[in-house]
Amino acid sequence: MRGLALDTTTARGSLALAGGEGILAEARVLSVDGHSRWVLGAAESLLAGLGLEAGRLDGFAVTVGPGSFTGVRVGISTIQGLGLAASRPCVGLSALDVLARAAAGRAPRVVALMDAFRG
Description:
With 119 residues, the chain is α/β, with parallel strands linked by helices. It has helices at residues 39-49, 69-86, 95-103, and strands spanning 3-7, 12-19, 22-30, 59-63, 90-93.
């Protein structure tokens, strides 16, 4: 099973192509101009680097918040568009759940936090 995952909830965006064997390729971007400027090009590069087409993926995932309102909209619309074009399912995931899952198993209790930049 292979899928493309996108996180645009913060200024540090990321895109990963994962399979049963783990992460196959990834791109991390600190975006000052907005995620819409890099995300499709990065997706195309990741897929081309592995000789894959979006239609050969099993599905798509995107973080749906909390985070930047515009970033979340860019992420959801991008993944939804790719999923519709490829006739593949999409799933939305909480950015906090993804952070917690990444740390799971390393501590008896995990608390996922994100800076809300509200002082």
